[in-house]
Design goal:
By secondary structure, the protein is α+β, with helices and mostly antiparallel strands. The chain has a domain of 73 residues.
C-alpha cells in the first residue's frame, strides 16, 4: 500500500512539473512569436494567398482553353423503317423492312479557344494585381500593429 501511495505521489508531481513550462523570450523572439501566432496576422497571410489564387485564376481565363468530348452510342434495337417493296423489285403494295444507320457510333470533338482581345480581361488582370497589393499592404499594416 505504501508503494502505491509513493507511486501515485510521484505521478502527480511529475505531471505538475511537466505542465508548468515557463517560456522566456527576448524582445525579438516575443515579436516573432506574436506575428506567427496572432489570429489577425494569420488571417492576413491567408488573405494574401487568396489574392494570389484569384490573380492566377484571372490570368488563366485568358490562356488557351481546350475542351474535348467523346460520345459513344450503341443502339440495342435499331429502328426499322418500312419502304415500298417495289423499290427493290418486289410486288406493288408490299413493304420491306429496312434499317438505316449503324449499330454503334463514336463522335469525338475538340475545341481550342483563346481570347485575342477583351477589355474586361485586361481590366480584370489589373484589378487582380491591385487586390494582391492591397492584401500585402494590409498584412504589413497588421504586422506593424502587432509589433
Amino acid at each position: 500500500m505504501r508503494k502505491l501511495i509513493i507511486l501515485f505521489t510521484l505521478m502527480v508531481f511529475s505531471t505538475i512539473a511537466f505542465t508548468q513550462e515557463s517560456n522566456s523570450f527576448s524582445l525579438q523572439e516575443a515579436i516573432d512569436y506574436a506575428l506567427e501566432h496572432n489570429r489577425v496576422a494569420i488571417n492576413a497571410t491567408k488573405d494574401i494567398e487568396v489574392a494570389k489564387q484569384q490573380k492566377w485564376e484571372t490570368t488563366a481565363t485568358g490562356l488557351p482553353q481546350i475542351n474535348a468530348t467523346v460520345d459513344y452510342n450503341k443502339w440495342l434495337k435499331q429502328q426499322v423503317s418500312l419502304i415500298p417493296a417495289e423499290f427493290f423489285g418486289g410486288n406493288p403494295g408490299e413493304f420491306s423492312e429496312v434499317i438505316f444507320g449503324t449499330e454503334q457510333t463514336v463522335t469525338a470533338t475538340a475545341t481550342l479557344t483563346q481570347k485575342l482581345f477583351d477589355g474586361s480581361y485586361l481590366v480584370g488582370l489589373q484589378s487582380a494585381k491591385v487586390f494582391l497589393e492591397i492584401s500585402k499592404n494590409a498584412k504589413e499594416k497588421t504586422d506593424l500593429e502587432i509589433r
